[in-house]
Amino acid sequence: MKIIEVKDQQAGGQAGFDIFKQALADKAQVFGLATGSSPISIYQALTASDVDFSDKISINLDEYQGLAGTHDQSYRYFMNQNLFNAKPFKESYVPNGLADDIAAETVRYDKVIANHPIDLQLLGLGQNGHIGFNEPGTSFDSQTHAVDLTPSTIAANARFFANEDDVPRRAISMGIGSILKSKKILLVAYGENKADAVAAMVEGPVTENMPASALQTHSDVTVIVDHAAAAKIKNRENIIVK
Question: Which branch of life, at top level (predicted)?
Fold first, then answer.
């Protein structure tokens, strides 16, 4: 893993923007995208720039089950507000959280990924080490699947809702196996509450109890962290400090 340590999330957004811009220069066609607070500074840098995604394809990691794309807490709505409205893609795929047949929806989404191999996949990191909504215990071979969210993930996401009872209990998520097929992966994490997960992801054993540790098996991963999130990494020799 290439680890870039920055002073704050705004600097991380610029570093992430540079990676997106380089991917475009390298003729990347398909971008895997993430939601949540961590990627927002990258999206802000992208929307403020002159980059053009109008002939590109985006594939999002996940979506809450039971929320329409017009719901203000759905991930489709998040992407529209934070990126797509300003920087539209030729095609943008997000799982259908209102699909009548969830099993069929996961199969459909796997076909989308298979037909459009991801050149650059953006990830956030959960406090328990989840990537996408792949909670601890998820198989590293997993493809798109329906997920029961853990209490810690529900609690962490409650800040976006009026109260915790409003947080959906299930989601559709790209699997860890799907993520690992991406040609290049960029993960961003900020704050001291992510420090344990970052250290375990980077230096801990590769175990399904720490989903993000699967990234140690990938050949091209860049991690952007601020000082607080990097605080518990023991071996700092290879960290690039910006």
Answer: Bacteria
